[in-house]
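Review this:
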Amino acid sequence: MSMTCRPLLPDETAQAAALIEESFDHGVAPLYPREGIEEFKSFVTPQSLRERLSGTGFAFAAERDGTLVGVVEVRDGHHIAMLFVAPHCQRQGIGRMLLRHATTACLERDPTLDAITVFSSPNSVGAYKRFGFAADGPEQEKNGIRYTPMTLDLSQTRN
């Protein structure tokens, strides 16, 4: 099986949105009230994803044998807006690979960057901790979206 990580192409936003929604429905939606589910789904439409990526945001796609299996989106040059892996491909290192590519791209854009942030869904806090993130406070909720603010300290990785 051949695995690659590359920038998400503009014509792949519909495919990426479908993967994100499938993964969300599988692991996150059961933890959210209806308001949070609707809020999230309005954020991941192909149109909204395309609009964010045409600005300052960027995304990487993980592809296995020609099939999209994961997506990471970064906004504001340092915030992981989304990191999703297809349910049947989770726990295979794909999320870690996507995060590594995103981190490298963030540092290329701003070599002085000292932290990457994420608002982790409840079911992903453990994964982000394994990736080196630390919680910045307790779980919060906004518009039905439950999340824990977390930070990856990059200052320790620089010479």
Notes: The mean pLDDT is 92. The chain has five helices and eight strands.
